Task: inverse folding
């Protein structure tokens, strides 16, 4: 029994080290005085001060956050509709094809996705006159296209595992489907909506391949800037910016976990009160 606990502990430590040691090294070397990111020469915060004056890097970061926020919000709206259609509309004609088309971007190589979207945007510009070239709009549409699939899977899983007796009871009492959705269904799937939004936001913020196909002049995202600068050596300013991004993302995840935990406790209290009063 002791050997089993020891092996599991070591496996857990190895897993945490595999995931977080590279991030910890990045944070440590963001305070390195040397320009060489692999040689420690003393503690310094000068790269954070220089980062404030690097407009190209900050503009790329702002553009990436803007695109990620908009595409994640659109993905949640469209993914929720797709999840509801697959779990609440029963067996309808074309359901298998619809489900396959929703999940296809999950296994589609990003190179194929980016190339197909580029051809689509070029054809639309020639036939419809929109979009006018490649830029923020095309990147946002492209990111929404493949992140929506991840959100749809998360929402579908949540809806499939949810007890439908509350919705049925509300409809038996005369509530309309729209009111049932906003009063009963939406609060119950709120944790999945938050998780889907964070997942879509992260996927959009991390994308290089698809954005390289559908971006244009003046619409270079942060991953594209970092990827191109790696060819000439990593600047310590990138480590500083990455550290700030890790801090922002960790803060967002911490706040979201607290909110979801409170909502879950409130939901359980409401269910217990309903059972006691019923």
Result:
């Amino acid at each position: 029994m002791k050997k089993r606990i020891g092996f599991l502990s070591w496996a857990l430590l190895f897993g945490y080290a595999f995931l977080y040691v590279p991030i910890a090294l990045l944070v440590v070397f963001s305070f390195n005085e040397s320009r060489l990111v692999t040689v420690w020469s003393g503690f310094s915060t000068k790269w954070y001060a220089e980062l404030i004056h690097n407009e190209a890097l900050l503009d790329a970061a702002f553009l990436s956050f803007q695109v990620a926020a908009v595409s994640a919000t659109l993905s949640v709206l469209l993914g929720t509709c797709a999840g509801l259609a697959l779990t609440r509309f029963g067996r309808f004609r074309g359901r298998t094809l619809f489900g396959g088309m929703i999940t296809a971007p999950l296994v589609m190589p990003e190179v194929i996705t980016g190339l197909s979207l580029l051809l689509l945007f070029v054809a639309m510009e020639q036939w419809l006159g929109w979009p006018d070239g490649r830029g923020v709009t095309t990147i946002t549409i492209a990111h929404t296209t493949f992140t929506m699939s991840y959100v749809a899977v998360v929402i579908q899983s949540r809806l499939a595992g949810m007890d439908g007796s509350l919705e049925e009871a509300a409809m038996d009492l005369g509530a309309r489907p729209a009111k049932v959705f906003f009063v009963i269904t939406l609060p119950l799937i709120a944790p999945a909506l938050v998780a889907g939004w964070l997942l879509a936001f992260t996927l959009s913020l991390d994308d290089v391949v698809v954005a390289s196909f559908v971006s244009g002049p003046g619409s270079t995202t942060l991953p594209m800037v970092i990827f191109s600068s790696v060819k000439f050596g990593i600047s310590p300013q990138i480590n500083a910016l990455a550290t700030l991004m890790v801090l922002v993302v960790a803060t967002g995840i911490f706040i979201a976990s607290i909110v979801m935990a409170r909502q879950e406790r409130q939901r359980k209290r409401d269910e217990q009160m309903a059972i006691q009063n019923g």
Notes: The chain is about 80% helix and 0% strand. The mean pLDDT is 86. Residues 194 and 203 are 14 Å apart (CA to CA). The first helix runs from residue 2 to 29.
